[in-house]
Amino acid sequence: MKKTALLLMILVSGFSAGWLTFVPVLGKVPEMTKNIKSPELIYNGPWATSMRVGGPNASAILRAIIANTGLGANTCDEAIYWIALIDDSGKRLRGGHTYEVRFIQAPAIQKETGFWSLCVYNSKDYFVPNPMKIYSLGNRSALIKNTDGSFTINLSPKQPKNRSNWLPSPNDEEPIMLQIRMYAPLPEILKRPEASPMPTIIRVDKG
Amino acid sequence: MRKKLILGLLGLVIGYVAGLVTHLYYYPQEAFSEFYQKIVKESGEGHWVHRRHLIDHTFSDFPRPNNDTLYSYCLVDLAKGPVVIEVPPVDRYWCVQFIRDNTDTFYYLSSRIQGLNKPVKALLVAKGYKGESHGLDVVYAPTSRVWLFARQLVDGEADIPHVVHLQDQFKCTSLSQYKPL
Fold this sequence. Notes:
The complex is a heterodimer. By secondary structure, chain A is an alpha+beta fold.
């Protein structure tokens, strides 16, 4: 009797510890697994997305991650969310540095009913406080573009020459993430998201 | 003695993994519940609750919000009866996302599907509903509690009053009180 009671106590203690540490562990999973390729994700340069977001085919872990850091995320027919934790050279994106996010073309969304935007989140998954209140750039922004439709967005703590193409990042070197939203994406993107033309992310400051 | 120690350790590890995995599967429901209860406590159930501002760094309903649309929420408990959802004619991107209590999305009303500039209505009912459709499109919810999450695109600060006016025309009426024009 004593042995079973003891074993039961051990199991229950273990169970409680597992239950209670789940949310902190969950919070660390995306960062810890960022260099591991998941079968649920589509990779495109430094960008990743999942076509299973918000739907019944998401794995338990994907559903839990989205519930934790993207509660209410749309299914891919309505919106595709691309995130980047690294730049093109594979290094972690951080505040304090200057990056160029170079678009060959604007993200492919439905003309009348769609929109796209690029934003940056700080290490707490919220917007970077800045007095100019610039939190995202997208198809409604007055971006300076080249004649062929390509354009560059500058991600940095200090305002560059073109303020219209500036996305403020934090001053300190905390890890940050970029997110591109494509609302009402075109059918060809839904069919082959891995072939969607995505911008490159190049760090341009030294050191 | 050693055997007992190993057994005990094994018991701890098995218990730990079981606790972790059980919470993993329960977590989405928990996150939904927390959000549902928070909004209902602040603003009530069964009617549209609107966020009137473009989100900035002070927003904290949930992580990674967007800075492009105005959010509206309607939290519905279908155990209290069916509801009629009405969307006014909207002249820009809009959607109403229907979310079940494990956070999966099960239906959309959206500019992508219904188009722009015309009113859209739907009757949201519990799974076993066998009543009349009242001439409306019937949407069967897989769970009793549903989070209706609406978004409308905003083109800068100056556009907000117009979108606020559109938000105010969204309706959620219990079927028993619904009177079609």
